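Input record (Table S2, row 213):
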Amino acid sequence: MNEQPTAQAPRFVVFEGIDGSGTTTQQARVAERLRARGHRVHETREPSTGQIGELARALLAVVPGRPVTVDPAALALLFAADRLEHLTREVEPALARGEIVICDRYVISSWVYQSLECDGAWVRTLNARARWPDLTFVFDLDPTLALARVAQRRASTGQVVERFDVPQTQRDLARGYAEVLADQLDGVERVDASLSIDAVTEAIVGRCIAHGL
Ligand code: TYD
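Output record (thymidine-5'-diphosphate complex):
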């Protein structure tokens, strides 16, 4: 039988990074690998699939001919509200059942994305009540490469263009994530997202195992 997480092992794991850095692809792969080690894993994401999250996602979509009208501060409040609702409705119950939760985007997304248009300290205050994850992997990738990946994905899937899919914005976001990494926060680790898909999975799974999973 495989070991269950110990009291110290991380259970709330978050993937962060600019659009196209590969968090969504890696979430499914890492979850599979952890399941093969005997863990029960709950995969989730933010904006969440709850009502507030769906509203945030709808407001992010860039519709041709429709000007981007949503107020940045209102959007920051929506992401923070979605986060608390997501924690209560989905994340905390899964953790209470003894599952490992892997969340695609979380608090650091708000810090980095919403701080482009709102006061950074205010954004952090809004999110201060959201529990800090045990482990956060920040996917580090050159924004030019990331945007190329996003363009390819959107062309092949017909996925909508979103508010932040702009080269200069992606460069600013990459700088924001680099600043967060430089702060060496508790449980926050850098992942070299320029490696092959397999190598990134190996790197993350290796870190999870090193942390006791
Ligand atoms: P994303 O994970 O890219 O979803 P999808 O792959 O379906 O497009 O998230 C949607 C966008 O939401 C992304 O551009 C980042 C943005 N976002 C914020 O601005 N703040 C937040 O707090 C979160 C969670 C996401």
